[in-house]
Each structure stands twice: as structure tokens, then as C-alpha cells.
Fold this sequence. Notes:
This protein is of the alpha+beta class. It is 44% helix and 13% strand. The strands form 3 sheets. It has a 3-stranded antiparallel β-sheet with strand order 1-2-3. A two-stranded antiparallel ribbon has the order 4-7. A two-stranded antiparallel sheet has the order 5-6. Strand 5 and strand 6 form a beta hairpin. It is extended, with a radius of gyration of 27 Å. The protein folds into 3 domains: 45 residues, no CATH class; 146 residues, DNA polymerase, domain 1, CATH 1.10.150; 51 residues, no CATH class. It has 11 helices and 7 strands.
Amino acid sequence: MPRPGLVVGRHGEITYTRREPGRWTASAHVRDRDGSRRRVRATGANKTRARLALEDKLEGRPSFGDGGIGAATTVAQVAELWLDGRAASAALAAQALDRHRTLVENHIKPGIGNLRVGEATVGRIDQFLRRTAKKVPTQARHCRTILNGALAMAARHDAIAVNPVRETATTSGTLVYVKGEGLIRQDHPKTDAGWRTVVLPAFAVQTLRRTRAAQAANDADVVFPAAAGTLRSPANFRRKWRAARRDTGFEWVTPRSFRKTVATLLDRERTTADAAAQLGYSSPNVTRTHYIQKAHQAPDLTDVLDQLGTSPQR
């Protein structure tokens, strides 16, 4: 029976060759993403160091023909490649491109630029955006846009499984009404705990993508704009929501009801602390008091209560 071939992206058995005293070579065949089988080698002072060097080389190996983006590509490098691509396609105006390059140089590179793309997790990106937002909130929002585009490109080249920015949502501001200016986006939430990145469930990601793909571009660059393409007033949304649920039997459902549903589910399936973090509260107390629905059915305590009906042993 023939030996099964290598799976794409995997390597075979590592072999070792002693070239001279203090110099070893470790090598293995790897099947690249183009389906070809190639041998990769690395050297070290002993077998262990040679193996570690080879494993690093295999882990960061770019795909042939994919533009050189692999697991070892850094966030800074992929951001530069993404900007180069935007420049070549004229997708960004010259001024916008210059602003993006400045953000990469001044914030992304010193902040998380040395991370490999596979190390750019949701948590690390969130921490970086939080630090940036404390200095200049608007720049944090633009940095997120750049990271979303750059890491999406890394995902398309199979350097990472999913884009850690695309599958998340960051709460980084809120809408406020300013006299003389109207409705504006304030570049920070109401509280420090309100700034957060949450991982979205699959159905939410799909819904947002469908909505975004079906709508025309709008000046506010938001997913749910007003009819004129501007920011949607929360008061107008509440008015339309009241009209939509009239005579449906769901008149009791308000935007707060959704928050309570999420908090109650997370409290029951996980912890109150998780529910508070999802809603953006620094302490579970507010979440527990105002958002988590109290259970209407007491737990089964019959094993304890049965003691009250048991005759004493003589």
C-alpha cells in the first residue's frame, strides 16, 4: 500500500546530517500551497538547534506565488504591502494614502509592527487600539481600518486562518447632539470600560456583510445610515422601532431588551463578569442589577429539603 502523501502546508519527517564538528543540518520535505513538494534545510550548532531553526523556517514559510506573505510576515510588512496595493490601484486619494502611511509609521509600527500576523490576535489588537485611543481617539479608528485591510489581505494569502479585525466589532465612540452642530460622532464612549472589542457570532458577521454589500456608499461610512446617508439619530430609530412593533404583540421589546437578553444568556452560560465585559461595564454589579433577568424557578434543592420530612432515627 503506497504511503499517503503530505497534506498541503505540512512537512514530513525531519532528518539530520552532521556536516562537521559543531555544525548540523536538519531537513524535511514540505508540500507548499501550490501542491509542489520541496525540501527545506536549516543549520545549527547541534541537532536541537538545527531542528528549532528548521521549525521556525517551516512555520514562516511563504507560499510560492502568493506575494511572499506567510505566517512569519510582520504586521508592519503586511501593512506596507496593503498600502502599496491601494496606491497601485488608485483606491485611495493621494492625501488619504499619505495619512495612512503616517499612521502606519507613527502608530502601527511602534505599537504592534513587529508582531507576526499570526500573533496579531483579537486581544492584542484591542489593547493596541485602546492605547492609541487614549492619545488620539480618531487615529485609533483609522488604525483599525488599516489593520482590517492589511490582515484581510494576509487571510486571503492563507497566512492566517481568519482576519482577527473583520470578525470583531470595536466600540470606540458614541453619537451625541451638539447645539449648533447637530448630531456628531464623539470619538470616545461614555466610559473607559465602554471602549472594547468583541468577537461577533457568525450570524452577526453574515448579517452585517449582507447589509453592507447591499447598500450604497454613504458620507458617514456607516452600516445603518439615515435615509439621507448621514448619521442615524437614536431618537428617530426609537420612533421607527415603536412603529414597527405596534400591534405585533412585541410592543414590550425595546433596545434595552436586547442588552438584557444578551446579559442574561451570558450570565447563565458563562459568568456575570463575561456579561459585564460584553456590555461594556467595568463592574458586574450594574449588569447584575439592571440587565440580568432573575430566575423565576428556584433550583432543585429537594435533596436538602427532604431532611425536613424525614423521621428522626431512633
